[in-house]
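Handout, section 4.2: multi-component inputs.
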Amino acid sequence: GAVVSQHPSRVICKSGTSVKIECRSLDFQATTMFWYRQFPKQSLMLMATSNEGSKATYEQGVEKDKFLINHASLTLSTLTVTSAHPEDSSFYICSARVPGRSQETQYFGPGTRLLVL
Amino acid sequence: GDSVTQMEGPVTLSEEAFLTINCTYTATGYPSLFWYVQYPGEGLQLLLKATKADDKGSNKGFEATYRKETTSFHLEKGSVQVSDSAVYFCALRHITGNQFYFGTGTSLTVIP
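Output:
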């Protein structure tokens, strides 16, 4: 199947700093990517849908100014957590949809664990 | 709203034991149901799916049947192997829209 990578796999940062997480589709071009977050012992929650060349669509309750999403190319989407706080500590997972395939066909990255001190 | 509830782990089984991971859902209409598996250090991978009531999804010896009357999609395998050790996520998705609704995941460890 298609491969999606994320970088970094884990990051520790100080409160108030910004952190950028990259999501790459390695062997296909993805016009649409998705960002999820997962708190311990909770479900993955969709944060936003990232469309190449246009603004991301955020789910209700997700602050677009805090979680900046850029999908500048067909193989890369980035999530920047701005002015991070300890409550932003979480597991962030991206997925990418393969063009021309069923909307259900999404490939997931391995996730990025963020710890804000 | 739509949601998925799956049994909490962790689950530890001996090799060749029978596995059941329960999953129930709440949704309007007729969603598609999925089981995803995440091996250590890797992304979620689709394990199996079912798109309508009474459908049975199967893959790698795993099975799950879409039961609308009980709103369930329990995952089963008759004889687990050490290589099945992973985290398993139940999920639903409507035909329209992008959003998946995931359960919290169940960690499975199979010991020799």
